[in-house]
Amino acid sequence: MLSSCIVGNGVSSGVLTDVKSDKLTAKFLTSAGTFNVQNITCGAKYCPSGVAITNAETLHINIIYKLMSILLGFTLIGIIIAFFMDPLPEETKINQTPQLKLCFSTIKNLKDPMILLLVPITIFNGMEQGFVYGEYTKAFVACSLGINMIGYSMICFGSAACFVSMFIGFIVKWSGTYALMIFGMFAHLSLMTWFLVWDTQAYPSHIFYIGAMCCGVTSSIWMSQTNAIYGIYFSNKQGAAFSIFRLFQSSGFTIAFVYGNILCVSTKIYILMVFLVVSIAMYSIVEFKYQKNHFKDVKVVKQEYDEKDMVAIL
């Protein structure tokens, strides 16, 4: 996913190189006609309008056709490669859960209190990615630097996320998942606070790429650790658990884009911050229950081994 983010945005950056790199402007429709507004407020103060048509939304049709043609080309290449791949082993096919059974299992496991407590952090996972793709690219990068700079900022986002993801496994061995999640919460809250007070006109262009990299660091924590949490906590029903994970992560994406053209960016940031704190609080309950049950299981196993050793001595 992250590698495709780098490659895809590299391609789009190449296509959009010739696009004029003006700051975001808009045409407001009124009864007297249209008039242009040059200095739209960028950053956290950016507010969408139902009657504004920005220059980021009026790309030349040839550029849109070119981008869609490249996307279609990559899709066809992927389909062709899939035909030449080795088929799945028979053993793997036998062990696969039927789709209908998996669907019913997913619905049944929605009643699990542990999964319900993890729903908020899963939805947040999708919402924060939706914020980066939908709000940071438009309200910060396109608004201040131009639409042709979006691809380069997202390359920085994907590169940072890939780089950090390679080391998260080693960090978790030393710190544990819960400590890393708490660190991620404070890091993300700090990042959102910076976005709230950031005067986008007072800083050079490279700061926007640093902001994208910071988003990549926090996203890598949420993406890797939420996957790990579902895999560890529900190891006996991973199929249904990851189906629920994808369901609510996609719901987070949907929520982020539904209110994307309604609320101001500052309001969206506050929503993310509050939702994150609530999500971590509910995840903490799950972590406490899991550690408590895990301690009991270890104690029982140790007691059984002690009894066997006693019998062997006798």
TrEMBL record:
UniProt key word Nucleotide-binding: no
Origin: domain of life: Eukaryota
InterPro entries tied to this protein: Ion_channel_UNC-93 (IPR010291), MFS_trans_sf (IPR036259), UNC-93_regulatory (IPR051951)
Keywords of the record: Membrane, Transmembrane, Transmembrane helix
Membrane topology according to the record: Multi-pass membrane protein
Transmembrane segments: 63-85, 150-171, 178-197, 203-223, 244-263, 269-286
Subcellular localization: Membrane
Protein biosynthesis in keyword set: no
Family, per entry: Belongs to the unc-93 family.
Name of the protein this chain belongs to: UNC93-like protein isoform X3
Species whose genome carries this gene: Hydra vulgaris (Hydra)
